[in-house]
Amino acid sequence: MITTAKRLDIIEEYYFSSKLREVRQLASEGKPIINMGIGSPDLQPSQAVVDAVVLAMQEESAHQYQSYQGLPELRKGMADFYQNNFQVELNPNTEILPLMGSKEGIMHISLAFLNEGDHVLIPNPGYPTYTSVTNLVGAVPVYYDLKEVNNWEPDFEALEKLDLSKVKIMWMGYPHMPTGARGSLQLFEKLVAFAKKHQILLVNDNPYSFVLNDNPMSLLQVEGAKEVALELNSLSKTFNMAGWRVGMVLGNAACIDAVLKVKSNMDSGMFYGIQKGAIEALKSDKTWFESMNAIYRKRRILTEQLAEKLGCKVYKEGVGLFVWAKLPDGITSAEKFIDEILYDKSIFITPGTIFGSNGEGYIRFALCVKEEKVQEAINRF
After folding, report:
1. Is-contact 251 231, C-beta < 8 A?
2. Is-contact 331 223, C-beta < 8 A?
3. In Å, what is the CA distance from 218 to each residue of 11, 158, 183, 191, 233?
4. Mode of pairing for the β-strands spanning 153-154 and 140-147
5. What is the CA radius of gyration of the chain?
6. Which region holds residue 45: left if phi is over 0, alpha if psi is between -120 and 50, else beta?
């Protein structure tokens, strides 16, 4: 009998991996499933992006191994994107590393900086991958609370009372997932100061900046942030390229170099055509964001109506790709609530509990469903 590694004993299969199997099974049985659970954009990349990939297929080097650091023009495109949209200047040769999606960056960063027993500050609620990767590398998750009473922002007095002596990394992300809290430059300044004071690597996970958000921000806008910080970003949500797997990590040059040491031992470079498409996507101007947000705005209005039809209270200040809503009084289990809706109305919604204990009492709707489908979901009630 071949036994699995002990590290698997402390993690579970990713929630959506297992739950979507159940959802697909229900669909195969003829259930008219409306999936409002997962944030996988259903909209298309721009035609210019697709054309760039098609054209790239004819180039001589298209099917060869690619550089671990990506094409120089891709890094330049990422640098220009940050300069144009955030007024952040980055050296494309030393402060930017393209990734196959920002999710892999969480693993690369953790492998590069965490030893067994190191502590990691993780937001509660927050992206579940922070916890699973921390456990996989043998580090220790230490959760810090985000609560609606504080607009889903950290309580710095509570943070200072934690034992921070073993903390190596702090994960954060604004616009926040799953709540959609915007954050602010003032909050970012406090986080950078906190990281400097305690010599912690601060990592901002920033894939939602341009979705329904009139004030996109980067942690790297804060003076001195590069001394202690990295930022992850992604083309998945911004440019409807989730399945393409294109992301980036940016910031402190020495930290980028450390991440590259890990990455170069784990892949053989990003597919050439995808890099060419990404370069084109990064050239998109404000009209692209405006056209996408016009669609998402209509969907959000309908999705809020659905949430309110369920007796939920919507977090109206939220931005990004999701609607976060508080369950009606008297509902004690978010998972039981969404399962009843799934089995009775064939609508899949995400329970807030998968994002941490502070997600209990909340549910999350993704805006990746066409308007007519959201209206159909409303009509089922």
Report:
1. yes
2. no
3. 31, 25, 10, 13, 10
4. antiparallel
5. 21
6. beta
Please report the pLDDT score of residue 305 as a whole number. Answer: 97
Whether the CB-CB separation of 248 and 97 falls below 8 Å is answered with yes
Residue 240: name the closest of 57, 54, 40 by CA. 40
Per-residue confidence (pLDDT) for residue 13, from 0 to 100: 64
Distance CA 200, CA 229 (A): 9
Alpha carbons 331 and 327: distance in angstroms, whole number: 7
> pLDDT of 81-107, one tens digit each?
999 999 999 999 999 999 998 889 999
Residue 36 tokens, joined: 């409002």
Of 104, 35, 106, 144, residue with least CA distance to 364: 35
Which amino acid would we find at residue 290?
A: E
- Which backbone phi and psi does 145 adopt, to 5 degrees? -75, 135
Q: Model-level pTM greater than 0.90?
A: yes
pLDDT one-digit tens code per residue, 320-352: 999 999 999 988 889 899 999 999 999 999 999
The predicted model gives 103-119 an average pLDDT of: 96
- Secondary structure string (H, E, C) spanning the chain: CCCCCHHHHHCCCCHHHHHHHHHHHHHHCCCCCEECCCCCCCCCCCHHHHHHHHHHCCCCCCCCCCCCCCCHHHHHHHHHHHHHHHCCCCCCCCCEEEECCHHHHHHHHHHHHCCCCCEEEEEECCCHHHHHHHHHCCCEEEEEEEEHHHCCEECHHHHHHCCCCCEEEEEECCCCCCCCCCCCHHHHHHHHHHHHHHCCEEEEECCCCCCCCCCCCCHHHCCCHHHCEEEEEECCCCCCCHHHCCEEEEECHHHHHHHHHHHCCCCCCCCHHHHHHHHHHCCCCHHHHHHHHHHHHHHHHHHHHHHHHCCCEECCCCCCCEEEEECCCCCCCHHHHHHHHHHHHCEECEEHHHHCHHHCCEEEEECCCCHHHHHHHHHCC
